[in-house]
From TrEMBL:
<dbReference type="InterPro" id="IPR039298">
    <property type="entry name" value="ACOT13"/>
</dbReference>
<dbReference type="Pfam" id="PF03061">
    <property type="entry name" value="4HBT"/>
</dbReference>
<feature type="domain" description="Thioesterase">
    <location>
        <begin position="59"/>
        <end position="147"/>
    </location>
</feature>
<dbReference type="GO" id="GO:0047617">
    <property type="term" value="F:fatty acyl-CoA hydrolase activity"/>
</dbReference>
<dbReference type="InterPro" id="IPR029069">
    <property type="entry name" value="HotDog_dom_sf"/>
</dbReference>
<dbReference type="InterPro" id="IPR006683">
    <property type="entry name" value="Thioestr_dom"/>
</dbReference>
<keyword id="KW-0378">Hydrolase</keyword>
<dbReference type="InterPro" id="IPR003736">
    <property type="entry name" value="PAAI_dom"/>
</dbReference>
<protein>
    <submittedName>
        <fullName>Thioesterase family protein</fullName>
    </submittedName>
</protein>
<comment type="similarity">
    <text>Belongs to the thioesterase PaaI family.</text>
</comment>
Amino acid sequence: MKAVPEEFEDEFIRGLKEIFEHRILFNQVLGLQIESLRPEKVVGRIAMKNELVGHYLHNRLHGGVISAGLDAMGGLAVMAAIGARHMDESPEQRLHRFGKLGTIDLRIDYLRPGIGEHFQLEAEVLRLGSRVASTRMEFRGAEGKLLATGAGAYIIS
């Protein structure tokens, strides 16, 4: 069994941030930014944006935005786990492994309204198989209060 690295190379982190924050246009619309990218856990952030008035209801983040953010973070956690699994490859080679990643199942439990100035999203991979990965995600308010949880399955063929 290969050891999981404690940290990724700067080149891999920069490349994955470029893909996630700039090439995936929906993540730009959400304002989703990566705060921490580690093999075992990823952390992101969404700030309340006035431009997305249609996605907010009485200063509350819409459930669809919460769901989309958790789904994106689950996918990012899978990308990190795949990157950690293939540390024998160059960062550039590993960044080309994400083309066929897709959500096959998603469950979101909304616990509290999404009210706040910004939100923190966390995700981790529970199991990385050869074709399917299972993840767990959390959506927290600015004070750290748990607002929603998620579980997802992603195809990685």
